[in-house]
Task: inverse folding
């Protein structure tokens, strides 16, 4: 057997089942890999003691014949999920020392299927960012590098720590959250698979809120099969979340072999934005040819309000963020900075506790919700959001899937866009529309840029039709044959 950390989720599951390794051995191998990868800054908290303890418990369950879908498989968890008794930060100074007395439903589901917690991964502060540079704990570095260049690249955001950990084989899989593309965009920039399920498929209970009508948990993995396995363990109805849908969770892994023969795939002209690099356009065309070759019919569809998606998102999401983050005032959670009176304490705590990007979005959100502007901005944005969802509904009356690029460019240099937030926001231009419509989407690594960096293609599906999305993703993966891995410079 090659190194234990080379095993993906399906490989680890099979090796554990055959007795080729124990969960404790597998977990220890990953902990050693994490310890040797500090240069990536992918983790905020590593839990060697807890991980080994959970692995031993898993090995004991296996001996007793109790085997869950992820029994003994070591995972990393984005530090936006509350984990009982474990520091949970959302990558923010304002949550200093916050240790939840409860477990998020998604992570509880994973532990219920036998998974092992390695640690909590870095992210953009409160999941606000497209590069993982807004974290109070410092930026995550993409395992991929430009040949001959020392400058670090971003892994995308906000689930950049999870994406980097998966790409560098620091875990078998990881959780992410996707509000406007925060699973799919970092997956594309790191050569990994990232899936955003339908809004309501995975419970949001115990996940620190950014924009409640958009936030959705999903898996970040090395393969589409792993995404299917992990999503099956994460998903399910949760009565503690009023937006959780009470509908059966299919066997996603069984759906993979269905192929795309007989499916109709839509290609939206409106996603051909001005200035899109030719290599992105070429990859998109290649994806079309791959799906055609496997028996899919491809036709052009119109998503005519696409150009309004990004401005709509940057009204709706900051508005909800400004409301959600009002709870961090120095009284209930984490950081407290004294003031002359209680108002001074609020002001000092929030001024010191939040980073610049979070403050920017709180200010935008408070403005668009304020008296006199609510109708002009927030209410109008909600109407446009409905029209964007209608565009998708009309398109899906003719097609089963929609194929687009995931991101408009490969990974870019750390610090190159931090002074230009509008340029940064454009990185989510292909992922935001599906988020506004609450639809499932997956990013699959499908090619390399001329500079030697991974590129991804995105498939979007109908609500609660993750099976077809995964079928299409698996077909793309088989055709692309992407096997690239970053050179492990961080071990040197």
Result:
């Amino acid at each position: 057997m090659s190194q234990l950390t080379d095993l993906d989720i399906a490989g680890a599951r099979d090796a554990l089942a055959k007795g080729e390794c124990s969960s404790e051995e597998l977990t220890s191998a990953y902990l050693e890999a994490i310890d040797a990868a500090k240069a990536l800054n992918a983790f905020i908290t590593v839990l060697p003691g807890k991980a080994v303890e959970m692995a031993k418990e898993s090995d004991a369950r296996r001996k007793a014949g109790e085997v869950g879908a992820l029994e003994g498989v070591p995972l990393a968890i984005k530090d936006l999920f509350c984990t009982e008794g474990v520091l949970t930060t959302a990558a923010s100074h304002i949550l200093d020392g916050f240790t939840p007395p409860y477990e998020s439903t998604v992570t509880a589901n994973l532990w219920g299927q036998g998974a092992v917690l390695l640690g909590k991964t870095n992210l953009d502060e409160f999941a606000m960012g497209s590069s993982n540079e807004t974290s109070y704990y410092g930026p995550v570095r993409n395992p991929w590098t430009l040949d001959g260049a020392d400058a670090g690249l971003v892994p995308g955001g906000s689930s950049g720590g999870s994406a980097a950990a998966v790409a560098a084989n620091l875990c078998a899989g990881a959780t992410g959250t996707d509000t406007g593309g925060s699973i799919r965009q970092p997956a594309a920039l790191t050569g990994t698979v990232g899936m955003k399920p339908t809004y309501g498929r995975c419970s949001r209970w115990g996940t620190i809120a950014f924009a409640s009508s958009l936030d959705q948990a999903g898996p970040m993995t090395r393969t589409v099969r792993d995404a299917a396995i992990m999503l099956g363990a994460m998903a399910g109805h949760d009565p503690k979340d009023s937006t959780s849908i009470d509908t059966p969770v299919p066997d996603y892994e069984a759906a993979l072999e269905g192929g795309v023969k007989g499916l109709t795939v839509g290609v939206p002209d409106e996603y051909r934005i001005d200035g899109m690099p030719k290599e992105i356009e070429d990859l998109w065309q290649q994806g079309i040819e791959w799906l055609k070759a496997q028996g899919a019919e491809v036709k052009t569809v119109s998503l005519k309000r696409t150009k309004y998606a990004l401005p709509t998102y940057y009204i709706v999401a900051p508005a909800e963020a400004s409301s959600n983050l009002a709870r961090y005032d120095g009284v209930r959670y984490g950081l407290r900075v004294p003031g002359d009176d209680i108002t001074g304490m609020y002001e000092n705590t929030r001024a010191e506790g939040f980073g610049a990007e979070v403050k920017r979005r709180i200010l935008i959100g408070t403005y668009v919700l304020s008296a006199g502007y609510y109708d002009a901005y927030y209410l109008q944005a909600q109407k446009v959001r409905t029209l964007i969802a209608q565009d998708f509904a009309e398109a899906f009356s003719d097609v089963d899937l929609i194929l687009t690029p995931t991101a408009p460019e490969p990974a870019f240099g750390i610090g190159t866009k931090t002074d230009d937030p509008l340029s940064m926001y454009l990185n989510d231009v292909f992922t935001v529309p599906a988020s506004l419509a609450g639809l499932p989407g997956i990013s699959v690594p499908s090619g390399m840029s001329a500079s030697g960096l991974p590129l991804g293609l995105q498939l979007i599906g109908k609500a609660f039709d993750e099976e077809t999305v995964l079928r299409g993703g698996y077909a793309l993966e088989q055709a692309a044959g992407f096997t690239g891995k970053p050179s492990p410079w961080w071990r040197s």
